[in-house]
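I would like you to sit down with the record closing this message with an eye to the fold:
=====
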Amino acid sequence: MAEEKLIVLIKAKDLIEYTFCMTESTKRFPKKTRFTFVNRMQNLSLDIYSKLLKINEMPVSQRKEHQIDVLSDIKVLLFLIELTKQKGYINSKQSVIWTKRVLDVKNLTAAWMTKTK
């Protein structure tokens, strides 16, 4: 596994940990939002990591469309973070920290995709 791929997996793990940390508090997210926001955000963070692991096992020629799929999941997660900020479930500082973690994974995935060409 190349160093870039290893870093993206480490960053994806960090993203999972932070996502669960941010979403586990029932004080932060009311019960009515558990299914609309929390489960979706947790599942997206887990899916991103899972897909990155699978991509690493694929032949290089098959990776691009799966990397695009991960980048799409990342965009959805970024949207949900922004929406939770707008709804007042998280503050601006939390949004910035969370968004940075997502963007780290996005940028590393995009760089990996460019190198795969």
About this structure: Residues 92-116 form the longest helix (25 residues). The mean pLDDT is 92.
